[in-house]
Amino acid sequence: MIDQIQMDMLKAVADLDSLPVGAYNIRANGQSAARNTTANIDIVTKTDKPGIDIIIKPGTKKESVHIPVVLSQSGLKENVYNDFFIGEDCDVVIIAGCGIHNCGAGDSEHDGIHSFFVGKNSKVRYVEKHYGDGDGAGKRLMNPTTVVELAEGAEMQMETTQIGGVDDTLRKTTAKLAEGAKLIIREALLTEGDQHAETDFTVTLDGAGSSADVVSRTVAKGHSTQHYASRVIGNAPCAGHTECDSIIMDDAKVTAVPELTANDLDASLIHEAAIGKIAGEQLIKLMTLGLTEQEAEEQIISGFLR
Amino acid sequence: MLKLEHIGFEVEGNKEILHDINLELNDRFVAITGPNGGGKSTLAKIIAGILCPTEGRIYLDGEDITDLDITQRARRGISYAFQQPVRFKGLRVRDLLGLAAGKTTGVTAACELLSEVGLCARDYVDRELNDSLSGGEMKRIEIAMVLARGTKLSIFDEPEAGIDLWSFQNLIRVFEKMYEQTKGSILIISHQERILNIADKIIMIADGQVSKMGTREEILPELLSSTCKVLTDKME
Question: Which residue in A118, B84, B86, B97 has its CB near the most CB atoms, within 10 A?
Answer without folding.
Answer: A118
